[in-house]
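Anyone up for a design puzzle?
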C-alpha cells in the first residue's frame, strides 16, 4: 500500500489510543461521511436537490465491478473529495480558498485524485456562462486560483513521506493499450449495465421526458466524464487491464443515477 491523507486519520486515531480495529473503523467512517456529502452536494449542485435525493437512493443498490462505492478505501475517499471539489465548482459563488485546500487533500488521497483534479480544472474553464467574462477582475481572481489548482496537480503522490517504490508502477498511456484494455472494459461495462439496468432505464426516460435541464454545466460535465472514460482505454496498469476504465465508470454511474432522479 501507500501512505495517503486517509492514513493520517488512521494514524491520529491510533495515537489517540484507539485500538487497531477501531482506528480503521473510524477511518472508514470518515470515508462514508466524505463520500455521502460529496455525492449529495455534487448531484444537488449539478442536477438539483430532487434528483440528488432519488439518485442517492438508487446508488445505495448500485453495483460497479471492481471498484464499487462499498469499498471504503483511499480511492473511494479520493472520489468523495473529488465530488466535493466538483460541487464547489458548480456553485454560483465559488469559495476558492476552500477549493484549493480541497485540491491539495485530493491529490494526496490517491493517484486517482490527479485525474479528478484535472477534470475539475477543465470543467471550471468550460462551464463559464460568459466567455469572455463580464467581470474582468473576477476572471483574474478565478484564473489565479485555477493556476494554483494546476500546481496542486503537480504534488507527487509520495508527498506524505512514502517512497515511489512503495506506490509501485502506476502504468502509462499509449494507443497500443486499447487492444489490451478493450476486452476487460467491455466485460465490465456489460456487467455494470446488467446489474444497473433500472438506473439506465430511468435515466433514459428522464432525459426523454425532458425532466433533466441540460444547462451548460451538465453538458460540459457529461462530455468530460465520457471523454475520460474513452481516454481511459489508453491507460494500462500492469496486471490490471481496464483498471482506470472501471474507476471512471463509477463516475458515469453516479451521473446516471442523478439523471434517473
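Challenge accepted. My sequence:
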Amino acid at each position: 500500500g501507500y501512505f495517503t491523507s486517509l492514513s493520517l486519520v488512521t494514524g491520529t486515531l491510533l495515537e489517540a489510543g484507539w485500538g487497531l480495529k477501531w482506528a480503521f473503523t473510524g477511518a472508514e467512517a470518515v470515508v462514508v461521511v466524505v463520500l455521502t456529502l460529496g455525492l449529495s452536494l455534487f448531484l444537488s449542485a449539478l442536477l438539483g436537490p430532487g434528483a440528488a435525493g432519488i439518485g442517492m437512493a438508487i446508488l445505495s443498490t448500485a453495483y460497479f465491478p471492481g471498484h464499487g462505492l462499498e469499498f471504503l478505501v483511499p480511492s473511494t475517499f479520493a472520489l468523495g473529495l473529488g465530488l466535493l471539489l466538483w460541487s464547489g465548482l458548480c456553485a454560483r459563488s465559488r469559495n476558492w480558498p476552500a477549493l484549493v485546500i480541497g485540491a491539495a487533500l485530493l491529490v494526496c488521497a490517491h493517484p486517482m485524485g490527479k485525474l479528478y483534479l484535472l477534470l475539475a480544472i477543465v470543467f471550471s474553464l468550460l462551464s463559464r456562462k460568459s466567455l469572455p467574462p463580464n467581470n474582468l477582475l473576477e476572471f483574474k481572481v478565478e484564473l489565479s486560483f485555477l493556476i494554483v489548482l494546476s500546481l496542486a496537480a503537480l504534488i507527487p503522490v509520495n508527498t506524505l513521506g512514502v517512497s515511489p517504490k512503495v506506490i509501485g508502477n502506476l502504468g502509462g498511456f499509449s494507443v497500443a493499450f486499447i487492444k489490451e484494455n478493450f476486452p476487460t472494459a467491455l466485460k465490465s461495462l456489460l456487467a455494470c449495465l446488467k446489474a444497473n439496468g433500472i438506473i439506465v432505464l430511468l435515466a433514459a426516460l428522464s432525459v426523454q421526458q425532458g425532466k433533466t435541464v441540460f444547462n451548460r454545466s451538465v453538458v460540459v460535465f457529461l462530455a468530460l466524464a465520457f471523454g475520460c472514460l474513452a481516454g481511459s482505454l489508453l491507460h494500462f496498469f500492469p496486471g490490471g487491464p481496464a483498471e482506470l476504465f472501471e474507476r471512471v465508470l463509477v463516475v458515469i454511474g453516479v451521473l446516471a443515477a442523478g439523471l434517473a432522479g
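A detail worth pointing out: The chain is about 70% helix and 0% strand.
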